[in-house]
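Weekly modeling sync, notes
Attendees: S.R. (lead), two postdocs, one rotation student

Agenda item 3: backlog of single-chain predictions. S.R. asked that every request posted to the team notebook include the full sequence so nobody has to chase files. The rotation student volunteered to paste the first one in as an example of the format we agreed on. Action items at the bottom.

Example entry:
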Amino acid sequence: MLKFIMKHYSPNSQGEIFRLYILVGDDRFHVAINGHPYCTYGFRGPLADIRTIRIDKDIQQIVQVDHRQAYPAPFPAIQLEETFNTFSNDVPKQFLPGHVIIMTAIPFGNPRGGFIIRFNENGTKKQALHLNPRFDPHYVVVRNSHTDTLDFRRDEERSGGFPFVLDQQFKLAIALTESEFKFAVNGSVFESYAYRNANLLNVLNGFKVQCSNGMQLEITNVDHMNMGVPDCEGFESYSHPEVEIF
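Predicted structure, as returned to the notebook:
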């Protein structure tokens, strides 16, 4: 593991929101804070050894962990700044069948609220997946997507029960196959949602989270991995609370 420790004077005051950028150069990391150059840090080992980004210490909330390819061409090509998002997680290359996203989070706040996990197409407002767990009084997980006119489809899906509990941590795995999204919560398979467009994985950049009606979602961990099998058979095991991703 490569540890990156910042010992320079911090340009931020306690309690302020800040944005940290880390650009991977030829032989060093280039760091900027709030759009201004801050420092550089030379590589201490092979970049191939880096598997995770860990953020800890005196941070109250993390709302964005986006990865972008800067060279030879930006990817995602468009990066929207949406202040209403609770969390954002873009990825620097296209998804392939067999990819699994594992999210660990805790819902809290107003029991009559909910949260939304969105996969948008190419940084636009068109949602390829709208996953919306709604708590009291509905206790239903709505799955839907946008038409070309950005309207939600009439045939939204609500089956599968409700695997989430307020104030209790959950582990959600979202598997991307050749034809559908698959979901698992805490080690058990929970429904799926078929792609509504062909070649959908070519236009997905990552996911966003949005909360509603006083609900809050504290996301503590996000892992990405490719299982090497397009149908993601057995992916639910990665959502088990005791399984660690390496």
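Discussion: group reviewed the output briefly. Residues 172 and 185 are 5 Å apart (CA to CA).
Action items: rotation student to repeat for the remaining queue; S.R. to check formatting next week.
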